[in-house]
Design brief:
Order of helices and strands: HHEHEH
Low-confidence stretches: none
Structural class: mainly alpha
Number of helices: 4
Strand content: under 5%
Radius of gyration: 28 Å
Helix content: 55-70%
Mean pLDDT: 85
Distance between the termini: 50 Å
Length: 173
C-alpha cells in the first residue's frame, strides 16, 4: 500500500482481534481506493472546467471588435451611406483579423487535445528562447529584453518550448 497499490487486500484469517484488524485494514484499503478514484475524477473535472473558462475568455476577446465593427457598419449604412464602402473596407478587415484569431485559437485547442509525446533531447534552452524572441524583436510594437542566465544541462523538447515561448509573447502583445 505504501507504494500506492491501494487494491492490496489481506486474507482474512487468524480469528479474534487479528481477523478484526485484517477486516478493518481491508475496509480502509477499499475506502482509500474509492476516494482516490473520486479525487482523480474531481481533478479531471476541475482541469476541464479551467480549460473551458480559459477558452471562453479567449473567445470573448475577438468577439468584441467583431460586434463593434458590425454595429459601425449598420450605423454607417443608416446615417452615412456615402461612406459605407470606406467603412466596410475597414470594418471587414477588422472582422477578418478577429476571425483569424478565433481560427487560430480553435487550431491551438485542437492541437492541445492531441499533444505529441515530448521528444526529449539535451540542448541549449537559452538558444531556443533567443531564436523565438528574434522573430518579435523588430515588429515595432514592443521591446523584448532577454537576459540569458547560466542553466544546467537537461533534456527538453525544443519544439514544445518554442511553442510555449511563442504563445507567451503573442499573449503579451
Amino acid at each position: 500500500m505504501a507504494s500506492g497499490r491501494l487494491e492490496t487486500r489481506l486474507e482474512e484469517r487468524g480469528g479474534g482481534e487479528v481477523e478484526d484488524l485484517i477486516r478493518a485494514f481491508n475496509r480502509m484499503s477499499e475506502e482509500l481506493e474509492v476516494k482516490q478514484r473520486l479525487l482523480l475524477q474531481a481533478e479531471r473535472v476541475a482541469a476541464w472546467q479551467e480549460i473551458a473558462r480559459h477558452l471562453a475568455h479567449e473567445i470573448k476577446n475577438p468577439l468584441t471588435p467583431i460586434r463593434t465593427s458590425i454595429m459601425n457598419l449598420r450605423v454607417c449604412l443608416e446615417k452615412a451611406p456615402l461612406r459605407f464602402h470606406e467603412v466596410f473596407q475597414e470594418s471587414s478587415g477588422s472582422i477578418l483579423e478577429e476571425v483569424e484569431k478565433l481560427r487560430h485559437l480553435a487550431d491551438e485547442f485542437s492541437g492541445f487535445a492531441r499533444l505529441p509525446s515530448p521528444a526529449l533531447k539535451p540542448g541549449d534552452l537559452n538558444a531556443v528562447v533567443q531564436k523565438c524572441l528574434n522573430l518579435y524583436q523588430n515588429n515595432g510594437s514592443a521591446t523584448i529584453h532577454f537576459d540569458p542566465g547560466e542553466l544546467p544541462q537537461f533534456e527538453f523538447d525544443s519544439e514544445q518550448i518554442s511553442r510555449v515561448i511563442h504563445n507567451l509573447v503573442q499573449n503579451a502583445y
